[in-house]
TrEMBL record:
GO CC, one annotated term: cytoplasm
Cofactor section: NAD(+)
InterPro entries for this protein: Epimerase_deHydtase, NAD(P)-bd_dom_sf, UXS-like
Organism: Candidatus Buchananbacteria bacterium CG10_big_fil_rev_8_21_14_0_10_33_19
Biological process terms in GO annotation: D-xylose metabolic process
SUPFAM superfamilies, A to Z: NAD(P)-binding Rossmann-fold domains
Any one Pfam family match given in the protein's UniProt record, by short name: Epimerase
Full protein name: NAD-dependent dehydratase
Keywords for this protein: Decarboxylase, Lyase, NAD
């Protein structure tokens, strides 16, 4: 199991650290640790981490994790003294997460959850570091909308269906992580992150909340895929970050569902976005496309009990923060 850090600050590696979740995680971790953010900008952005470059406890490595890397030999990491101190924690977040991005980067998604994850697990072995794997409810496959799912539900996935790229990649990833745990006694944790939203999501991400906000800010129709009465749950990014750090520091190896247990009708989300943006948009409802995730809900009893965690951000506040962020993005206002 993981060694204790012998220096004043831990060395933490965040693989996929320039993405939506990873950049918020780097912001949090750098308060108390030395953070190595590794990313190849496949779907992440330099702008998510620009403000961290002045911090001497933060270093960025532009690298594709599908190729193994010797961190000790990187001159930019000299001050992290990796040859003496090693790495204590690894967060593995590197995957295109939205259906749009994992369809565009289908093979890359499969490879990073196998080859890339294996390289990160090898680093965890070498340094006796703890490793968290960010998985997804996609592993549960197709479940009826509105149902709540517990971690022990064994899903089923059509391996040739449009969502299989992501679901099968995450299922393989979970099995790989679990077997490093069993075979090498590695301290690993698996979290299944349900719909998360907040600042640093990409404008072109394609998921429901940024798409609706974009349309509202442009006074265009809000196109909702699903019916007004359909139910969803949405976890604000700062709540997710607390859960990820809590998982790393805790003893539960998972899998752990991380989600909000507040549920909202699609119509409530769309109405709230129109209200907060003072938009003149109208809402239209359309059939969901086969690539879109089913809207089942998470049972988060395990997260509450094992981490002492529960989400605290109200939808209004989370949406306001996301709207403020997206409104300030170049290219948000589009010509009619
Ligand atoms: P994201 O696309 O914003 O971040 C992923 C990051 O990984 C990007 O910065 C990307 O450039 C990087 N990356 C991809 N391939 C890489 C490679 N080969 N080498 C190095 N870096 C690479 O996605 P996100 O929303 O921040 O998701 C982070 C993780 O959480 C993913 O594993 C995703 O599956 C999981 N997750 C997220 C959500 C959510 O709602 N955001 C839900 C479920 C699971």
């Amino acid at each position: 199991m993981a060694d204790q850090a012998i220096f004043d600050k831990k060395n933490i590696l965040v693989v996929g650290g320039a993405g939506f979740v990873g950049s918020h995680l780097c912001d949090e971790l750098v308060k108390e640790a030395k953070v190595i953010c590794l990313d190849n900008f496949l779907t992440g952005s330099e702008s998510n981490i620009t403000h961290l470059h002045q911090n001497s406890s933060f270093e960025f490595i532009n690298h594709d994790i599908n190729t193994s890397i010797e961190l000790e030999t990187r001159p930019e990491l000299r001050d992290f003294k990796i040859e003496f101190q090693g790495i204590q924690e690894i967060y593995f977040l590197a995957t295109p997460g939205s259906p749009k991005f994992y369809s565009d980067y289908s093979v890359e998604t499969m490879m990073v959850n196998s080859l890339g994850l294996n390289n990160a697990l090898q680093m965890a072995l070498k340094y006796k570091a703890k490793l968290i794997y960010a998985s997804s409810p996609a592993v549960y496959g197709d479940i009826e909308d509105g149902q709540r799912v517990k971690e022990d539900y064994v899903g089923s996935v059509d391996q040739l269906g449009p969502r299989a790229i992501y679901s099968e990649a995450k299922r393989f990833g979970e099995t790989l992580v679990n077997n490093y745990r069993l075979k090498f006694d590695l301290d690993t944790k698996i979290v299944r992150i349900f719909n998360c939203y907040g600042p640093n999501m990409k404008l072109e991400d394609g998921r429901m909340i940024p798409e609706l906000i974009k349309s509202a800010l442009n006074n265009r129709d809000l196109v909702v895929f699903g019916q007004a009465e359909d139910i969803g749950s949405y976890l604000y990014i700062s709540d997710l970050i607390q859960a990820l750090v809590g998982t790393m520091n805790g003893s539960e190896s998972g899998p752990i569902n991380l989600a909000s247990d507040a549920k909202y009708k699609f119509s409530e989300i769309a109405d709230k976005i129109i209200e907060l943006t003072e938009s003149r948009s109208v809402i239209t409802y359309h059939d969901r496309e086969s690539i879109m995730a089913p809207q089942f809900l998470a049972d988060i009893t395990l997260a509450k009990e094992s981490l002492g965690w529960f989400p605290i951000t109200l939808l209004d506040q989370g949406l306001k923060n996301t709207i403020d962020y997206l409104s300030a993005q170049k290219g948000i206002l589009q010509p009619k």
